[in-house]
Design goal:
With 170 residues, the protein is of the alpha+beta class. It is built from four helices and four strands.
Length: 170
């Protein structure tokens, strides 16, 4: 094995074991805890008028997208999209495994995609439980995997802004 290849494999493993796997484990353990300790739709106020734990099941995609579609269509479409996204993310990480803002973002998105795919395969709907709200103004209920995907997308946007910023002549 060439030294470059060895370094690439080591960097890829560092990303997968240092970011993807821990986020995936936290996601799955948190969902397991919620399912085993809460009744469906049970609510626990953590910060009044701001943050609750609310056990819900989401048969759709992000923000309950596609939830009204026929179950057979929704399931096969979401499973296919998730599997395709995981393959693309792995290919992107393998092609350039150097630790940078973009690869960290891809590793986070990968963890989120795998976490929600595990739910779809194991349970059908995805377990969501984090409810952020301001009094009666709610944000859709989400989970750790959704958070990882969102943070990953923000990091990709930041990386693209950073790379497109003109170099300063100092």
């Amino acid at each position: 094995m060439r030294d470059e290849t060895r370094v690439g494999v080591r960097e890829l493993l560092r990303l997968l074991l240092g970011i993807t796997l821990p986020v995936l484990v936290i996601d799955q353990l948190s969902k397991l805890y919620i399912v085993s300790h809460f009744s469906l739709h049970e609510d626990l106020v953590l910060i009044p008028n701001w943050l609750d734990i609310t056990y819900t099941l989401n048969p759709g995609a992000a923000f309950s997208l596609f939830a009204a579609m026929p179950a057979w269509f929704r399931s096969s479409m979401l499973l296919s999209l998730a599997a395709g996204a995981i393959v693309v993310l792995l290919v992107l990480l393998i092609r350039d495994p150097r630790a940078n803002l973009t690869s960290v973002a891809l590793a986070l998105i990968l963890a989120g995609a795998i976490g929600n795919l595990i739910d779809r395969i194991w349970r059908g709907p995805v377990v969501d439980f984090i409810l952020m709200h301001y009094y009666s103004h709610d944000y859709p209920v989400f989970n750790v995997a959704d958070s990882a995907i969102s943070v990953g997308v923000v990091l990709i946007l930041l990386a693209s802004l950073k790379s497109s910023a003109p170099a300063s002549s100092g």
